Design the sequence.
């Protein structure tokens, strides 16, 4: 079970500082959607150059031209890109095609997908590497959690699951019990007074140490 740090701050400088402080405890660095929109592909190249040993995920949330968007991120150094499950199936196929060509991976994000189990089964057949069970920030603010969706998909589809959405020290045990491949934590680390200590505490919870 891996720990992914979602970095959604709005400057490259802030992002690099957070990655530097927490690198000992995290497995995957995520350049979050607001961050990649604000700073662009230059940050992907820079992050990979500075942290070559870390898996780098770019949270594109692609909705169209899946192959094209995945291509330029993989070429810049991304190891994983995300495509929205609500996108056209050909967009998802395009992202997967790009990943296979580059020897990289694709995560299909199930945010706002009505039938997550059915789509998870479909994208597994298409060759997706991960399915993301994700409650977005707006959904979290409305009281939603990814836990129930995680339970239902994990019982019915055998594909590595990545779970995200307001996860912190208080909620992580219930998430961990469902055995996802990756647990994504953002604000509980990036918004902490001491991000390094927060990352260490969450990593210990995940790794059972």
Sequence:
């Amino acid at each position: 079970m891996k720990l992914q740090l979602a970095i959604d701050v709005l400057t490259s400088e802030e992002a690099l500082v957070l990655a530097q402080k927490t690198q000992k405890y995290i497995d995957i660095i995520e350049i979050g959607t607001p961050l990649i929109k604000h700073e662009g592909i230059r940050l992907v190249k820079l992050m990979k150059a500075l942290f070559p040993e870390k898996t780098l995920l770019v949270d594109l949330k692609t909705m169209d031209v899946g192959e094209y968007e995945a291509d330029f991120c993989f070429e810049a150094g991304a190891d994983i890109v995300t495509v929205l499950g609500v996108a056209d199936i050909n967009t998802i196929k395009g992202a997967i095609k790009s990943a296979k060509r580059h020897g990289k991976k694709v995560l299909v994000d199930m945010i706002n997908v009505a039938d997550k189990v059915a789509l998870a089964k479909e994208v597994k057949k298409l060759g997706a590497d991960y399915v993301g069970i994700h409650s977005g920030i707006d959904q979290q603010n409305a009281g939603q959690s990814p836990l129930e969706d995680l339970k239902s998909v994990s019982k019915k589809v055998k594909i590595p699951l990545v779970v995200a959405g307001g996860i912190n020290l208080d909620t992580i045990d219930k998430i961990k019990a469902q055995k996802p491949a990756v647990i994504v934590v953002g604000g509980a680390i990036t918004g902490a007074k001491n991000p390094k200590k927060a990352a260490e505490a969450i990593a210990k919870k995940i790794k059972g140490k």
Summary: The beta strands are 2-7, 28-31, 55-62, 80-84, 105-109, 130-134, 161-164, 182-185.
